[in-house]
């Protein structure tokens, strides 16, 4: 028996183009990420630049015929590349959720909460204000100005745990108190950031009304509660069963299946699939039945193949030529200023309220200011939903690049000053003690002359 209308397969030429796109994007991502790391910059910067070079910013102007052949404008061709990138970002977010250490949040509780809340509220408020002010320049046709403003505010308050962790590791700060505090505050930021993305995305797709707003807020809460009550036992049972098998393949397949089902469930609810992937990843990471060694091959595949491909694809969407217009350039500078000032100031104030020194507070602000991976995911989501156009998308990705580049030098400067300050305080304390002991005529504090005279 044969089907009357068999499903057509991918055309040979379309498959050829896809294979070449993947190979070229990965090649440029590899070369530029290694170059970025050699100059002590985050690898994600090089991966984004790979797409930027191959996109409309450079290649389209230098070799337009080759650009049109390699990156044709037919929707079906770009959809295949986008689908590969979407799979990559879902698994990246799932792996990131599995790597979060919620014990840090419990350990650093109050201080982390202060830093995170202040680092969220201030840039969120400034971003929303900037969104309304710049809507005349950056608002896409047909988009709602309120949704755009809220989306920009949400984009200003996110933090990128993967880039921060790599930066702290490179600077030997990962296991120091300040590094642990940055990570714990970043965990809180990540959780709130993905939830906010889900809320704003629902507003963009379902419209802006009181009912939609309330539903958009309650749905993420319902997702988290369902995950804790229903998802956690299912994840525990699945990981336990997979862990009994030999080799890492059953565990890897189980985790991928769980992440994709979680993403699909949240997508079916009208929210962003990324939030579902993150929640399931967090459940996987907190399960005592997870053998983390068996998950290493998946992490390697995601970080070495799928994530660079996603970032390179994200870079393809950038068009830096839009910055030649004075109003767009001014808007870009304004958004970058809002992003940096809001996050740095918010985290700084939260740290100072927790009685940290000003240099430690600056180090916290510098770490929390890093946007990197998360900002790119947010920008891609906004572009797909129609909340952003090419200019506003380019600006937000530029914020991700600039803040990721800013983090290491500012963090090094702040930590050097913090250590100098601590050494100065220690020297002053030692001098005061010696003066006190000398004035009492003895080498030990609190002893009187009568005690040392025979």
Tag the structure with descriptive keywords:
454 residues, mainly alpha, Na+/H+ antiporter like fold, 18 helices
Question: Topology, pairings included?
Answer:
Elements: H1 12-38, H2 43-54, H3 59-62, H4 64-70, H5 75-99, H6 102-138, H7 145-156, H8 161-170, H9 177-206, H10 210-243, H11 249-268, H12 273-286, H13 292-316, H14 326-353, H15 358-368, H16 372-385, H17 390-439, H18 449-452
Provide a concise account of the structure shown:
This protein is mainly alpha-helical and 454 residues long. It contains 18 helices and no strands. It has one domain (92-418): Na+/H+ antiporter like fold.
Protein described:
The protein has helices at 12-38, 43-54, 59-62, 64-70, 75-99, 102-138, 145-156, 161-170, 177-206, 210-243, 249-268, 273-286, 292-316, 326-353, 358-368, 372-385, 390-439, 449-452. It is an all-alpha fold. It has one domain (92-418): Up-down Bundle (Na+/H+ antiporter like fold). The protein is globular and about 80 Å long.
